[in-house]
Amino acid sequence: MNIALMAHDRKKELMVQFCIAYCGILAKHSICATNTTGRMVADATGLPIDLYLSCAQGGDEQMRARLAYNELDLVLFFADPTASEESLNSVNMIARLCDQQNVPFASNSATAEVLIRGLADGLLDWRDIVNPKH
User: Which CATH number characterizes residue 79's domain?
Assistant: First the structure.
């Protein structure tokens, strides 16, 4: 499965801790991330991560393009609810594309944990049927 990781600045350390906790599950999948988040996770976990631009430089647009082409199977975007309206609009656009493509999406660690545990249990295998290897 293709998993995307994104996090607002105030949630990056939470994303790192989450990925450390679930490194064993994540290691079985392809991971992409926006630049800063991806580098932090890769440094902490040793996971291979395809890095995109930072959100400020267009990384969110790169993620939206992959979603529009249905190339992602799971998106974890740890959002800071106190972020600027512009930053929250980015989360909303990602969430809307996930809804359009029927891609599981988590904007917080609680929901992400449920999705990752479901991924480990094979509960997201339907994505391989709906969207055979891209």
Answer: 3.40.50.1380
Q: Enter the tokens of residue 93.
A: 């656009």
- Residue pLDDT, tens place only, 2-11: 999 999 999 9
Alpha helices in the chain (DSSP H): 12-21, 23-26, 35-45, 59-68, 85-101, 109-120, 126-130
Express each pLDDT in 33-89 by its tens digit.
Answer: 999 999 999 999 999 999 999 888 888 999 999 999 999 999 999 999 988 777 778
Count how many domains the chain has.
1
Domain coverage including residue 55: 2-130
**What are the catalytic residues?**
60
DSSP SS3 for 31: strand
For the CA atoms of 109, 9, 105, 99, the dihedral, rounded to the nearest 10 degrees, stands at 150
